[in-house]
Amino acid sequence: MTTSVAPPAAAGARDGALNQPVIELADVTAQVQRRVVWSGATFNVRPGSFTAVVGPNGAGKTTLLKLLLGLTQPAAGTVRVLGESPRRGHRQIGYVPQRRALDPDTPVRGCDLVALGIDGHRWGFRLPRARHVHDAALAAAIDAVEAEPFADRPIGRLSGGEQQRLLLAQALAGGPRILLLDEPLASLDVRNQVAIAHLVDRVVRERGVATLMVTHDVNPILGVIDQVVYIAQGRVVAGTPSEVVTTATLSAVYGAQVEVLRDSHGHVFVVGLDQEAAHPHEQ
Amino acid sequence: MIATAPGTQLTWNIASDIAELFRYDFMRNAFIAGTVVAVVAGVVGYFVVLRSLAFAGHALSHIGFAGAAGGVAVVAAFFGGGAAALAVGSIVGLLVFTVGAGVVMGVLGNRIRGRDVVIGIVLAWTLGLGVLFLNLYNGYATEAYAILFGEILGISSVAVVVTLVAGVVTLAAVVALYRPLLFASLDDEVAAARGVPVRFLSIAFMVVLAIAVSEAVQVVGVLLIFSLLVTPPAIAERLTVRPPLVIALSVGLAVAFTWLGLAVAYYAPYPVSFFITSIAFATYLVVRGVGAVRERSRLADVARGEGTRVEAA
């Protein structure tokens, strides 16, 4: 929580500009352990928009999220998140990291996990008098992801899709304006991928939460996204899907001749790369 | 010192049997210290299991052995060999070594997860160090036995007070850390992004664990520490999944094992540690067995349910 008194001009600008971008990157270079991962990233994210962050494994997609979370610092350029420099523990950002397999015996219910998204950062136990407000917020978060049927079951015994829903609820429980999702569709079957994609899309539209979803396969969300950020070969391009996912743009990104093919359902395939980069959908 | 009071025998009068348990000071001290230790171990053990720190707890207890032996040796060398002084030296040595090692482990944090070989090598060396310290002090066998296997019946009134104070401090720390510690234990990445001081919690919890281990060593000894620190929460998490309930159950089990062990050992000529560990292990087996049977019948129900649904369709 910032308690500094903003100068009147800045406060006015913030109130007036509802369409002010929630994320702004200007010529940003990202590094991991002093090694440059990508550079020249310039793009904005509007409030309540849905952005896909796409690219081959190891291209630096997660690094982008860590940058926005204030967990790593840019080597160059400026990053603004909600009008200020990124910092850890921003209450307005919901984050779902890449999912690891949970121990099936983890002695915690789904709703316990969601509850931590509301007040897990506070010291001590939850006070009894805070319980009423807490329960209402918890129920709303679980309802938003349609997780009531399994929210009381042990988290480790749930399916990948069910766990993903609860993690999403945890991220939403704090009432964020920005949602950062790292590969939420990985290791889900196609039916669950579509279900989660639609769920996220609904959250974006109904709650006006600006969402960045990292994915190595853009196809499940191609129909619902407003913007694509494509990261490959140390370069970053951003734009609408029809601007970015084209033969010309991606050839420029990869620095090699690639071709974007479309099938009859509108799914896109990038071909013409070497093995590692050519099949980003396979792991 | 296998302290069975002479001439104590079970009667059929349960009330007088129980009253008999509290007739001597050494038994009252043992019950007080044992209860404090069990409560602390039950609470701290929940997070040990959740954070997969069982081996770290084990390592801390071995490092504590060197500390306790060193404390005894120092006290014997500089302050003479009075029993109470030796006991205090043992506790202080335990605390200093385990807390020091706990801080190191906490600072290393994730870097030591999965480094079982390194931990094993270090703890083997500290055991060797402990043997040397014991050798420097002449009352070799008794002290070694007490540290390795616990000597709750011989606990001094001073040690009871130290245990009580340390117990209250650890419990207060866990209460204060509870929510962020739970958050960081379940998902340190999200917790860190939410501003939870994950690294501080890692160090703070290792200090809490070090103190809890030091206390539990007095009851069950270095070698049997799991029976109070790991077995109760491991049983509890098989019975319920609500975090506060798991902790309450874990505490209840640890206290029950300690009380039962003390009571049985009072009437039987065998060590308390043996009874505590055996009761804990037997309970674990029963709970696992019942769980397996229930799981099988649940699966059978599910299978039957699916069958009916297919028929109905």
Question: In summary, what is this structure?
Answer:
The complex is a heterodimer of chains A (283) and B (313). Chain A is of the alpha/beta class and 283 residues long. Chain A is built from 9 helices and 11 strands.
Keywords:
heterodimer; A: 283 residues; alpha/beta; 31% helix; globular; disordered N terminus; B: 313 residues; mainly alpha
List the secondary-structure elements of chain A in sequence, H or E: HEEEHEEHHHEHEEEHHEEH
N-end to C-end Cα span of chain A: 40 Å
The coarse silhouette of chain B is globular
What name does CATH use for the topology of chain B?
A: ABC transporter involved in vitamin B12 uptake, BtuC
What do you see in this structure?
- The complex is a heterodimer of chains A (283) and B (313).
- Chain A has helices at residues 8-16, 61-68, 110-119, 131-144, 160-173, 190-207, 241-244, 247-254, 275-278; strands at residues 23-32, 35-45, 50-54, 76-81, 93-96, 178-182, 210-215, 227-232, 235-239, 259-262, 268-271.
- Chain A is an alpha/beta fold.
- The longest helix of chain A has 18 residues, at 190-207.
- Chain A is globular, with a radius of gyration of 20 Å.
- Chain B is an all-alpha fold and 313 residues long.
- Chain B has one domain (2-312): ABC transporter involved in vitamin B12 uptake, BtuC.
- Chain B has helices spanning 14-21, 25-50, 54-79, 83-108, 116-136, 140-149, 157-186, 188-193, 198-220, 226-229, 231-239, 243-267, 272-312.
- Chain B is globular and about 70 Å long.
- The A-B interface holds A 69, 71, 88-91, 93, 95-97, 105-109, 112-113, 116-117, 119-126, 154, 167, 170-171, 174 and B 46, 49-50, 175-180, 182-183, 186-187, 189-196, 236-238, 240-243, 246.
